[in-house]
Every structure is written in structure tokens, then in C-alpha cells.
Amino acid sequence: MKRLIGPFNEIITMSAAPLRGALTEDALGLIPKGGVLIEEDQIIEVGNFKSLKGKADHIDLIKGDHILMAGLIDSHTHICFGGSRAGDYAQRVAGKTYQEILKNGGGIHDSVNKTRAASESDLTDLVKMRAKRHLEEGVTTIEVKSGYGLSVDEEIKMLRAIQSANELVPADLISTCLAAHVCPKEFNSHEEYLNHIVENLFPELKKQNLTNRIDIFTEDGAFDTLLSAKYLAQAKAAGFEITVHADQFTSGGTQVAVEAGALSADHLEATSDADVALLANSETVATVLPGASLGLGMHYSPARKLLDAGCCLAIATDWNPGSAPMGDLLIQTALIGASEKLSIPECMAGITFRAAKALNLSDRGRIKSGQLADLISFPVGDHREIFYQQGKIKPDGVWKSGTRVVG
Fold this sequence. Notes:
By secondary structure, the chain is of the alpha/beta class. Helices cover about 35% and strands about 20% of the residues. Strands 1, 2, 3, 4, 5, 14, 15 and 16 form an eight-stranded mixed beta sheet that branches.
């Protein structure tokens, strides 16, 4: 059955917008008084609502002023975790640095203890709750990392919880193994721990079909560039896609990511001009995480420079219990957009089809024939209102794979 949804004051299709570089208003691909024709989970046709009415078996009539765009994609989250790190926040605003808190047993180590104490069922419920909130705010595809287990059994527990939650919410949860988050205290050296993960966890990830993505935190206090490069090469050789936490506090991770052929290099707060050039001349997506900048009181990643250099720029929340607890993709995108002077099309591309590229997904993020019918509508008559209101206007309609799941 072919269903027509509409009419909408404007449909933001982004159908012909390029994957790389700066964008101007024409990249939005606006269709006024538009409708979307859907069959099962796919978009069949997009165009003038009246002209599409004769092709539909059923019409979902939209009343009042509304704008339609593709469902949002959050390509970097850590929403599988137990406990809270409000104590870390109190220390940071009192003057302690992220690295100082980590060295003193807080930070990631604190979340590891609390996540290990949680059952798989507990973690499933927590991921489900957070994913449901994201979906209600228009995020239809959510990347979710492990990384607070830091042992074979605990990482498997986390990834199973993510997998179970994926079956309980309409949003697509894309799992990533971040066992290489920091070195757990049970191991004598970082190299020993990474070897243990490669030898004992990688085969189980494949055997149990838990994820096809591997991540590593390349940073002082986590894993250095040499160990990171070796680990990523081993992950690729084992058949995994790879991504990198890069340049959050110091440079070096971007070079590792580009040379390894990573899908994305994420964070980039400490990225240099040379790193920007490396990304611009690679296929690696530059993913910026404004939520971490807000949570840590840091400057934003150089999003304007990255776009002007010709990079593919994605924007993600980094939703996690420590440095980025807000987890609001629209608000964070509006804030980095205002600070870095990103155009509205650049903001929208960064949380739709360019974010999809960071996850190696080409079937979503635009409104055009052949794409998944992941759609969100806003109760406004002008698309500029969405970011003008700094993310406070939320979708009142969300469709996942053609089915209305919110509103």
C-alpha cells in the first residue's frame, strides 16, 4: 500500500547536497507544499502534495504549519552505562581537570565500576530509556558504544544489552565496541590489555554477531598513537570497521585515524591545521562533539575550518555519564552552529546524511526515492525556526521506516 504524508509547508530533502565541504541555502533542496509517498519502509516519491494524491492508496493528512526533514542521526554516543558521575562534574567546576579526575580513580574508571555492578537486564532498560528519549526528540538512528566494561565478559554484557535494547525501541541502535577506552587496572600495561582484547574479545564479537565496529581512545592517559595504529590494523584485519576518538586534548589521533582508513575521527577539539588538511584529503569523516565541549568547559572543535577545507563534517552528542551528560542533539547543534558560524544546511547535513556516512550507512539521511522513510516534522512554517529557537522546538511527528512512532 502506498501512503502519502502531507502537506508540509516545506520539505527539506537535502537530496543533491554534497557529502563534503561548505553548504549554502540551495543545498536544502526545499519542496514547498510538499508530500512524501511511502511504500512499506521506503520513500517512493517526493513532490508537490496535490500532484501525488492520485498515486496514494491512503493519505496521512498533516494539519497546520509543519516542516519535514530526515530523521536525525547521532553517530557517537555512550548511552550504555550504569550510575552517575555528578561527582566528577562537581570536581570539574571546582577546578579539577578531566585528566586529574581520571588519574585519581574517577572519570571512566568510576563508570566502569558502576557499569560492571549493573546486570545485563539493568543496562538494557537504561539503554532503552535513553534511546526512547532520543527518538522522541527526532533521533531515529543512534550509535551506541560499549567501553565501560573493560573485560571480555563485561564488554560482551554491554553489547548484548545494546542488542536487546535495539529490539525494544523503534530507533536503529548501531553498536560499537570501545573496549579500548582506557586500560583497566587489572593489567600491567596498555599493550598487554590490547593484545588480550584482540585475542579473546574480537573472536567472540564475530561469533556472537555483537558488532562490526571497533573504536579506540587515542589520547594521553588512554592509548598512544603507536599502540592505537597497531590495534586498528588488527581490527581491520579481523574484518571490523574502525573509528577513533581523536584529538580531544592533544593532537595525534587524527593522523592515526586517517592512516588507518577509519570511517570517522571523533572529538577534534585539539585538531591542528595540519590535521584538518589530513582529514580534508581523506575519506574519514570529521565528527565534532559539542556536548563534550559544553560539559568540560572547552572550546568547540574547529567545525568552520573543517568545512572550509572540504571535510565531511558530522555533529554528534557524545552522550555519556561524564563529560557530555546532556545528550540533546538539536540544542548542541544549534550552539556549535552559532559559535562556529555554520549555515543551517551545514547544521542539518551534520546530523543527517553526513552523520550517516560516519556510520557507513547510505540508506538514510535524505528525503528522496529509495531512502528509508525515517522522517521528522516540526510544528513551524519556516525551517529557519528550528535552529533559531536553539533546539527548543522539538519534533511533534517521528516516522521510523515509514511507521509513525511519535505524535
